[in-house]
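Entry
Fold in token form

___
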Amino acid sequence: MKIPLITYKANFVQNKNESMEMWARRTRQHYFELARKNFQCDFIFTGHHLNDKVETIIMNLDNGCSIEGLRGIPKKNKYILRPLIDIKRKDIESYIENNNLPFVEDLSNYDTLIKRNLVRHQVLKRWEEQSTNLVLRFNKLSKKAEFVVKKMNSFIKKLSTRFNIQDNVIEINDNEINFLSLNQKVRLIKYLIGSEKISWRYNRWNSLEQWINNAKIGSNIKINSNWKLLRDRSKFILKKYVLGSDGFNLVINEVNEYDKSNNSFSEIIDGSLIEGKKIKLRKWKNGDFFQPLGMVGKKKISDFLIDEKIDFFTKQNQMVVTANNKIIWVCGHRLSDIVKVHDKTSKFMELSLVPELKD
């Protein structure tokens, strides 16, 4: 038929806890996207129909889904369009039969060891035989759920503009969300991390609700591979893992003169005061102290960070620079008075904290 065709061969390498079906789905989507870019197409069409959508809803219910799971398969997901998603399987089969269209049936679709096939052949098919409008009722339920979720997300989106979002950290103050239910708080967190379109299983949803309700100051919970949620004194803090954000290098350069920059992760010191000393970058620990710039006496790092109103998560990861084990810089916050630049300084050294590059 002179239709361009690209074929790909994939190595069967599964992720942790991933079934063959999950691997195949992930692999197909990956190569669909490659083909879309290769052919410079705007969209990918798939053949999902209404019965596929109902099967998904039933499986989501079995997994203990929230209202998101009642939406089933969306008609559009980024570049993927599903033009048959509102058409019943029986209507498609009738069209095929009436028009004598050849087709191929994948034999793996009859393997009831696969959950979807079990739902298809032993649940939905038998149920549909006794209820003519069953899939249409499910479709109405799906559209209602989609409408409600859209409305709730619209409200959550408007609410999210109140929060302080910067450098992959989102602060959620208690006084901004006290009026929300636990369910709505979880929904807000899902939205803020970009997971509002993903259906969570009941256990995952419930565990986050329980943690939010009982979290003690300083505790944290891993939401997914990218985000962690921390309980601070009067707020929750969402922290995103970013390559290089949790690993830093200390760069020391000699400069010609004192030139104070606006970068809090760069400081100029009297270089003569660290000559011949062992310089080290490390996280602070209990018992650490230093002499803050401008102060006569010493102060515990823990007290200094509290005075600076540093949240617990940032406090946990606070870096310091030492010279012969004496702290000369609480990175990003304050130099020690013992290395300050003065009128007789002749050698200027710049300390800079930069993200560590990883392969």
